[in-house]
Amino acid sequence: MQYSLCRHIKTKGTQCQSPSLTDQPYCYFHTTLHQRHANYRYTEATRGYLLPGQHIELTALEDRESVQVALSVVINALATGRLDTKRATALLYGLQLAGGNARHLLKPYSPDVILSHQSDTEGLNLAPAGATIDM
Questions:
Q1: Surface-to-core class of residue 103, CB atoms within 10 Å of its CB (0-12 exposed, 13-18 middle, 19+ buried)
Q2: Cα 131 from Cα 126, distance rounded (Å)
Q3: Confidence of residue 71 (pLDDT cuts 50, 70, 90)
Q4: Are 116 and 15 in contact (CB under 8 A)?
Q5: What is the C-alpha separation between 75 and 79, in angstroms, rounded?
Q6: Please, what is the end-to-end C-alpha distance for the chain in angstroms?
Q7: Torsions phi, psi for 65 (to 5 deg)
Q8: 67 with 12: CB under 8 angstroms?
Q9: Which one has a higher pLDDT value, 129 or 30?
């Protein structure tokens, strides 16, 4: 039996290898992950409670590579004055915890890096449609 693959693209450029939910682009994990992080994306609806001038976008911290990217974003925001020291310190501590947790994650086998992508209605990148897995 064939199942469509989740179309989530990880930070390192590989596609998630889990089967997607029926009639959905993502697997269960990435569907719930994107729903939970929707409140933290900079949109017209979230503009009211984000700190003016201190907004930075961090990806979901799902693997070691995403922790490294988030660390780079925080350090650059601190260096350019977009974050105050107190807030950056809290974020860096959180990233230190995430990095420690990520060390224990298994690295799934990912044979192919995604070379092209599409965007969904929220601006998130999706792997091309049509990838399947035999089960």
A1: exposed
A2: 12
A3: very high
A4: no
A5: 6
A6: 6
A7: -65, -40
A8: no
A9: 30
**Band of residue 92 on the pLDDT scale cut at 50, 70, 90:** very high
Mean pLDDT (the chain) is 78
**pLDDT tens profile 6-17:** 999 888 888 888
CA 47 to chain centre: 20
Residue 84: CA count within 13 A, CB half-sphere: 5
> What counts of helices (H) and strands (E) characterise the chain?
3, 4
Name which of 103, 135, 97, 125 is nearest 16 in CA terms.
125
Q: Which residues of 107-116 are buried (b: 16+ CB within 10 A; e: fewer)?
A: eeeeeeebee
Q: At residue 79, does pLDDT exceed 60? A: yes
How far CA 78 is from CA of 53, 60, 66, 103, in Å, comes to 12, 20, 18, 25
Domain count, the chain: 1
Range of the domain at 126: 2-134
Report yes or no: 79 and 73 within 8 Å, Cβ to Cβ: no
